[in-house]
Structure prediction request, 198 residues.
Amino acid sequence: MLRRTLEFFFPPAVATRAELEAFVRGEASYLAQKCVIGYCRVKTMQDYEKLLTEAAFRDGLEACRWEAYAGTLADTLILVEGLLRPAGEPARQQVADSLAAFYAPLLGDVPAHRTDWNDAIAAFDERFSRTRQEPPAHPRNVTDGTAKVIYRLAPIHPRLKGEDLEVVRGDLRLHAVAMHASMLKRFRREALLRELTA
Prediction:
């Protein structure tokens, strides 16, 4: 308990490749889980626990969480690349290539609603190859695609969703900004660049 309290007020530095992978996985998972479950809880209110006993709702929630994670993982890696991006070549290319290689392994096992992650990996590769050539994105601007996925797949009847895309988008943006602030505080940039270009 004391360790958790200390880590809350004094979060550990991220200075190695392993620590960076753990950070990316953890933050992307948290972002997906927080936004999907938070949205579903708000929409269902006191019926949320009751709905969890329904297989269709549980399956829909699980599928939405996994698809959201595929999105938040991509969003997080794009923010990391923009933050760590060196000024010159070939380091810039090496860092981007190293970070791109994180995506497929960090997706993990294929969930029950999928046969593979091939389309998600292809979509990430295409998106990342574009964003690495652009100016680093602001954290407010990287999660819009993921917001659309959550809005579309959340196991809530369409007539109850209304104009909630903006709600989901705002929630994701808020958490992405907080995550970026954590990166600025915890990342040891020079150490990470040495690891990623080794």
